[in-house]
Amino acid sequence: MTQKSSKPAEPPVTDDLSQHLGRRLRQLRSERGWSLETLASASGVSRSMLSQIEREQANPTLAVTVRISNGFGMSLSDLLQMPTTTPTLSVIRADDRAFHYRSDKQIRIRTLSPLNLEKDVEFYEVSLQVGSALRSAPHFEGTREFLTVQKGQIQVESGDTVDTLNVGDSANYRADLPHAIVNVGKGEAVIFLVDIYG
Predict the structure, then answer these.
(1) 26-35, Cβ contacts within 8 angstroms, sequence gap of 24 or more
(2) Domain boundaries of the chain, sorted by first residue
(3) pTM above 0.90, yes or no
(4) What is the C-alpha to C-alpha distance for residues 32 and 30, in angstroms, rounded to an integer?
């Protein structure tokens, strides 16, 4: 006759949830600039276990998952927040290179809208050096662009229509035609640009 354990085994987190947990750990550590050692120290979960969870090679128990959430200083439900849940606040840090759509000597385009959402609206910060131009082929039919000049002087082209904008000026125009934003000023131009797809 086998002897039963006085304490029942704790159920592991389900496979789908453990995959999500691995992604969440990587995301949260990246946002906070934490190493695995930092999280291990904060949570009391070993570095090797955390590494396995992040690589989705471990199926942590509920107790381990709770310790990780405590290490991050958040509730279990916040840690396990699934992608379908809409967060109340989402932040894009200025120095997060993942959101730099283009960055070279002439033009920098920084995405200001979340990368992981299927969306019909996109928001950008565009920096143009003197004499540079952002020229675009037609987008999908019905697409319009809205922009505001924060710094400098630009020329906006949409099809055969051309106009010049200064600081504080805004414009909206068809983006389902060839279009361009040209820095015609004497210094860097910075604009905020919104694409709305029809």
Answers:
(1) 26/54, 28/72, 28/79, 31/93, 32/72
(2) 15-79, 97-196
(3) no
(4) 5
